[in-house]
Specification:
By secondary structure, the chain is an alpha+beta fold. The protein has twelve helices and four strands. It folds into two domains: 72 residues, 2-Layer Sandwich (Alpha-Beta Plaits), CATH 3.30.70.100; 249 residues, no CATH class. The protein is globular, with a radius of gyration of 21 Å.
Amino acid sequence: MVETSIRTHTFYVKGMHCPSCVVLTEDKLTEVTTVHGAKASLAELSVTVTGDFGDKAVEQLATELSQPLIPHGYSLQLTKPKATIRWQDFKYALPLALCAIALFIALQKLGIVNFVRSGNTGYGTAFIVGIIASLSTCMAVVGGLVLSLSASYSKAGKRVVPQMLFHAGRLASFFVLGGVIGVLGKNVQLNTTGIFVLDVVIGIVLLILGINLLNIFPWMQRWQLALPKGLSQRLLGVQKLNSTVTPVLVGAITFFLPCGFTQSMQIYALSTGSFITGALTMLSFALGTLPVLSLLSFSSFKIQKPETQSVFFKTAGLVVMFFAVFNLLAGLVVLGVIPPILNI
């Protein structure tokens, strides 16, 4: 009888926090030659790996399989990560969030931006939401694509052009597909009830996203919207194509990858009923993500310190929750239940 060296092990994934993490973890592990399959679970913060691991000890295997994950902020361990809530971070996050909200309100009063709500989202708001999205944990999968492309093409001595093509493809797809969504929405004439429902949907999407950024209710992660995992994996597979147009294609497919911010803006674009408005809204959002993603492309930019990460994400979470509550209240304004908020 031939002794097989095929083994199956389950590891806990430190750093996993959203549906994007599940897709990225599986994708990177299946790139390892000895791995035959990987199935991650957000609910359990774990991944089950099957492969030809020989007689390696499970501890050694966890260390080796962590290597392709570490650049993306994850690692494998044998014990489940303890859910530690850093309440002290709110001492800094709350004042920072209040300052950001006050700034948004001031910009609103000056007419520079409009808050995220159906029928009243300005391009300035879409740009600001893009900035927040690019710095949030929900952009982990896009950041992972950027870093993967950067590493792959750097080995071949090509660093600048592929990254520029990636960002060009991303901006172009957000403009064109945002316009397509707008046109599709043209056939959906929303009455007062429809606008209320749309406000509530956007509000709930953002509220779940904001709560997850606070990292105080781990069980809420499973409620975050995401594309079917199989589809997300196929989209990620585009980055493995050996073609000069690959960076453009990878940039384009980021429009479909799971991100609560992107999804909320896509819902709004649908409500515009206009190609130009939908296209410019999504383009403004993509331009907001451009500075940070560019830094990822051409440098090793990261929010490295866990303490800094925790404060930033809690600040972003509080700001996003403000947007969410505002959308929910805006729905009540549409129904005439409450008077206009902030005179808008």
